[in-house]
Design a protein that fits this description.
alpha/beta; five-stranded mixed β-sheet
């Protein structure tokens, strides 16, 4: 048996919908991109109803994106946020988006992060997180978001990470509802 190779590749349509280097100056524009990625992932049948993007905080320049790729790539860790972290760190050539010499970075995600992704926020190096839909919205769809508590957010905030939650929540929820109507796979419920 040979050692398996792990490759993470975004669907081809992503480059068309979210060209890297684009400028997104407002929180709403950043969340709207994450929601658009989630919606296109559902409509094009390439994954679950979650999208994420990483931006330079000050300039608003798009550094990376991620879409949920769990089922498509048979890997339970490939949530949209995790893919966005991986691609940003690869693009910047650093395991930390908060490394000296780099600008501050913001993660925008179409839904509040699950336990795995919230844990990864700390180690990713982002200084700010914007979220769309709530944890409860994802749970209503049947997704198990794991052990995320108010204390989880307080801990991350004490480490200097700022959260702005439920930005454009209603728009984000429409993607979850569309996924449910299409009979999308709930792979961890």
């Amino acid at each position: 048996m040979t050692d398996p190779e792990v490759r993470v590749r975004l669907p081809d349509w992503v480059a068309e919908v979210a060209p890297l280097g684009g400028m997104y100056r407002s929180d709403e524009a950043r969340i709207r991109l994450a929601v658009t990625l989630a919606r296109e992932n559902v409509r094009r049948g390439t994954g679950g109803p979650f999208g994420a993007a990483i931006f330079e905080e000050e300039s608003g320049r798009l550094v990376s994106v991620g879409v949920n790729s769990v089922v498509r790539l048979n890997n339970a860790t490939l949530h949209a946020e995790m893919v966005a972290f991986m691609t940003a760190q690869a693009a910047l050539g650093n395991w930390s988006l908060g490394a000296p010499g780099l600008p501050a970075h913001t993660l925008a995600t179409s839904c509040e992060p699950c336990a795995m992704c919230l844990g990864a926020v700390l180690w990713s190096g982002v200084s700010r997180v914007l979220t769309g839909a709530s944890r409860e919205d994802a749970t209503r769809l049947g997704f198990d978001e794991g052990p995320v508590f108010p204390e989880s957010y307080r801990y991350l905030e004490s480490r200097g990470i700022r959260f702005d939650r439920q930005v454009l929540r209603a728009e984000a929820v429409t993607v979850l509802e569309e996924y449910r109507r299409q009979g999308g796979v709930v792979y961890n419920g």
